[in-house]
Amino acid sequence: CVASRLLLRGEAIVRLSGALTRQSYRTIQVDKYRHLEEPRILAFLNHSCDPTVMVDTSCLMVFALTNIVEGEELTFFYPSTEWKMVRPFICLCGSAQCLHYIAGARHLSPNTLDRYFSNSHIRELTVASLCTRSRLSHSTKNRASSGEEAW
Question: What is the 3-state secondary structure (H, E, C) of 33-101?
């Protein structure tokens, strides 16, 4: 998908519509549990670690992240919507900050995610994951210090 005209940073590009469905490689995650299939636009937006657009699932809109010139590809950061992807892939976007392997936000550190726009469900899932890891780590340390076996 490429811009047919100059798009200014922050400009609303298109409203998404579609059907809620089961997760597949053709859907985007719109909240913690639901996925939207939107073949009209999303099927043509590729991933980039240096995206030109953001997909805001709170209002189902695509916005320009930068000024985008006519003919420039529209790309978004897939982990901004996806916690765990159905089809992880090796990224070949070529950007200086390329992550090289895209499997969803679940597989990225909070520091990495902080460099990108993330939808609220991704932020919530990240915090929940960190709390779970912290509780597990604390529990394992307590068992080890009391002489219990961790596993």
Answer: CCEEECCCCHHHCEECCCCCEEEECCCCEEEECCCECCCCECEECHHHCCCCCCCCEECCCCCCCCCCE
